[in-house]
Specification:
Elements (H helix, E strand, L loop, with lengths): L3 H15 L4 E6 L7 E3 L6 H5 L4 E7 L2 E6 L3 E6 L2 E6 L11 E5 L4 E6 L3 E7 L5 H8 L10 H11 L5 H6 L9 H11 L12 H20 L36 E6 L2 E6 L6
Parallel strand pairs: 2-9
Antiparallel strand pairs: 1-7, 3-4, 4-5, 5-9, 6-8, 7-8, 10-11
Helix pairs in contact: 1-7, 6-7
Length: 274
């Protein structure tokens, strides 16, 4: 899924690959997907995008935003996969949008379970897209102890650490995927109540958020996700559906899997006690 490490990595790679290219054609979905969301009518995307030059690609939260001239954007969200193809490569048969550039290279956007693809000029009335831009990223130096304490104090009720970090878009792009290793590295159980966190626990949590995300980015993303060239990242996820039957990498304890808050959580029964 497209979370903070992937949006950063894909945007950086796409900037180097796509900058300066001009959109030559837009091909609409060959496979309809009921949980693909568009901005307006996707049949009008060619009129918006054709002739526009890529000037930058930005990643924020769970969004990648291909910025073109004339204040034009092609943004896509969590759940949408992107892959870049050279002109000699075979075009996949099924996709939700294909954008051809003036050198005959192209990108293909496909949606798995759900995802958004938005072509527009100027701004967009989308709370998730705008929130990803406006809210402070954990990668920012201003996301500090005061900021985290403010988040906790502003919640107004005693929720779990998972609910604090990965629900209500408090931290766009920090989802259930990256959450597992963040909490494992912090030694904090995902069900633990925020009221139980000491000042030291909060400091440890902040350090883990920043260090875990930066480690994922420095290694090219998680090994469960792919970059714009279709290559998996080099960061080995410690806790996931693929590793939950293995012993804890820290203490050898049992890794637990539970359904919680709309997704599965993984934790060590010894290192992350409830």
């Amino acid at each position: 899924m497209l979370e903070i490490p992937e949006s950063k990595i894909i945007a950086d790679m796409a900037t180097g690959i796509l900058r300066g290219k001009v959109v030559a054609d837009v091909i609409n979905a060959t496979s309809l997907h009921r949980f693909t969301w568009y901005e307006g009518d996707p049949l009008l995307y060619a009129a918006i995008l054709v002739g526009r030059k890529v000037v930058d690609v930005k990643g924020y939260g769970s969004y990648v935003d291909i910025c073109l001239d004339d204040e034009t954007h092609l943004a896509f969200s969590d759940g949408t996969n992107v892959k870049y193809y050279e002109k000699a490569e075979k075009c996949p048969a099924k996709f939700q949008l294909l954008v051809v550039f003036d050198d005959d290279s192209y990108i293909v956007l496909t949606v798995a379970m759900y995802g958004g693809i938005y072509a527009f000029r100027g701004g967009i009335d989308n709370v998730y897209y705008n929130g990803s831009i406006e809210k402070l990223s954990p990668l920012d130096d201003k996301f500090d102890m005061d900021y985290l304490n403010g988040m906790i104090e502003n919640v107004g009720k005693d929720i779990s650490v998972k609910a604090l970090l990965a629900t209500e878009q408090r931290i766009p792009g920090l989802g259930n995927g990256v959450l597992q290793d963040i909490l494992f590295n912090a030694g904090i159980n995902p069900r633990r109540k925020i009221s139980s966190l000491s000042a030291k626990d909060r400091e440890t949590l902040l350090i883990s958020i920043k260090e875990t995300l930066n480690d994922m980015i420095s290694k090219g993303g998680r090994d469960s996700e792919k970059n714009i060239l279709g290559i998996p990242g080099g960061y080995h996820c410690l806790l996931s559906s693929k590793t939950c039957h293995e012993p804890c990498p820290r203490c050898g304890g049992r890794i637990m899997k539970e359904a919680y808050l709309g997704g599965s959580v993984y934790y060590c029964s010894e290192c992350q006690k409830k």
